User: Fold Endophilin-B1 from Cyprinus carpio carpio.
Amino acid sequence: MDFNVRKLATDAGIFFSRAVQFTEEKLGQAEKTELDAHFENLLSRADCTKNWTEKIYRQTEVVLQPNPGARIEEFLYEKLDRKVPPRPTNGEILGQFMLEAAKEFGSGTPYGSTLIKVGDCQRRLGGAEREFLQTSSISFLIPLRNFLEGDWRTISRERKLLENRRLDLDACKARVKKAKAAETKAGAVPDFQETRPRNYVLSASASALWNEELDKAEHELRVAQTEFDRQAEVTRLLLEGISSTHVNHLRCLCEFVEAQAMYYSQCHKYMLELQRELGSCSGDIRCPDSLDVNCHPASSPTDPSAFLPLNSPSPLETDALQIEEVQPPASGTRKAKVLYDYDAADSSELSLRADELITVYTVPGMDSDWLIGERGNQKGKVPVTYLELLS
Assistant:
């Protein structure tokens, strides 16, 4: 093992000198080279970016994986540079339990067949969640983490180096100032009235020594100023790159929102399909005689209205709304692109086919989850979640 004592002593001396300089600056006993206002603004902006990026990154992790134990496990696998083992989502586990229960109860029974339908839907929801987590991690979490562990570490290292260069520069300025004061004092006219030769010799020798010390201190100051200016320029370029970081994070944020919107749209689609399946088979469900007294509540499972969306109009409201009598407003009609196929549940609704264009508008008093859609001479209610409104 090569142990360089001289280098260790030199580094220790430099560290001690910088510590003394820093302490004197804090106590107001030494001058400090101030950075310009633009540079200070860049530093403040960089610190703000780092702090909020870290908070957003941590909270996004919590949103995507609420289980802290799972997050710790993934963190350890990453540190060990090992692939995280696949983990089923909660929806997939629930769906698997329901399918296994259906086998036990019998797939031909009403309860077993319903468990199969709901279990299959839960597995699809879990698969959509898995895809959303993967997409969000790639498009949003990883870029934020790369900034914190890559670009920001480089900026922090260069900022620390700049601070050291500044301390060295201020120390050189202090030495030059001290050498000038000593040279001026040594160059004063000696008193020739007493011990004239001795005073003259000492004064000339001290003046020459301090003149040499001043030249050395000024040379060190020029070197320190050059190194400080060079390091300040490098740090400034890195800090100005924060603007590019914001642009990149903006793009990642839009991709995250797009993935989230797609995930919730898929979940809504799966649940609507499940509601229609359960609604179509609800008429075949019969309660045992012993439970007849409980089979007629205000909202029984066999009541189709129990499977309608929460904000959808009731059957009475549907009957009251005569689609044929609805007239489009003078302004406010828009074109919309159909995202998914939709089969009308009754005569008041309009069936849709994916990728077709229709005209849509709203009418006063209508539920916000529905619009009036027109295709040629056909007219009816259409769900908003199945549409992409075009400007």
Q: What stands out?
A: The CA atoms of residues 77 and 84 lie 6 Å apart. The chain is about 65% helix and 5% strand. Confidence is low (pLDDT under 50) at residues 191-196, 287-320.
